[in-house]
């Protein structure tokens, strides 16, 4: 099984940390400089049974700047052409404008969206449940997976879930 996976989320939710955890030290990943290429391959994760190619979705998390129509189209095409979308949020912070912006971008996308609640190491389980309640009515998520990208908690489980969409 193999396929492409888009990763989106506003700045500082832990996208790079997650990629580092998944890809290990094998790949010199990513600066956070503005993208010059349209879509950046962040890395490839290979197991005995699967290969996942992770793709960054540039420009999608910039609510302050109006995206050009072209960039918007590129972002939408990326989302449509991948097998799954990982939407990362920081579970230790309240939902904000950056998150809402992405949710609107994702509305009407037919690609399966997996909501990844990152930084669970920072919150009480009650807070986690509360956040799931907040998000689950916003979009029809295919799956909701809590993780700690920093500590590695549940990252394997997320990869297992992801594999089912390839
Ligand atoms: P990005 O902007 O989405 O790529 O976010 P980064 O991966 O750069 O992470 C932003 C900050 O959040 C860094 O200081 C990370 O160490 C921290 N961080 C990322 N994941 C976690 C997590 O699961 N738990 C905690 N406590 N911190 C995290
Ligand atoms: Mg980053």
From TrEMBL:
Residues 147-149 are annotated as: G5. The keyword Magnesium does not apply. Residues 56-59 are annotated as: G3. Residues 1-166 form the Era-type G domain. It is found in: Cytoplasm; Cell membrane. GTP binds at residues 9-16, 56-60, 118-121. The keyword RNA-binding applies. Keywords: Cell membrane, Cytoplasm, GTP-binding, Membrane, Nucleotide-binding, Ribosome biogenesis, RNA-binding, rRNA-binding. It is a peripheral membrane protein. Residues 9-16 are annotated as: G1. GO terms for biological process: ribosomal small subunit assembly. Belongs to the TRAFAC class TrmE-Era-EngA-EngB-Septin-like GTPase superfamily. Era GTPase family. An essential GTPase that binds both GDP and GTP, with rapid nucleotide exchange. Plays a role in 16S rRNA processing and 30S ribosomal subunit biogenesis and possibly also in cell cycle regulation and energy metabolism. This is GTPase Era. It comes from Salinicoccus hispanicus. The gene is era. The chain holds residues 7 to 172 of 301 of the full protein.
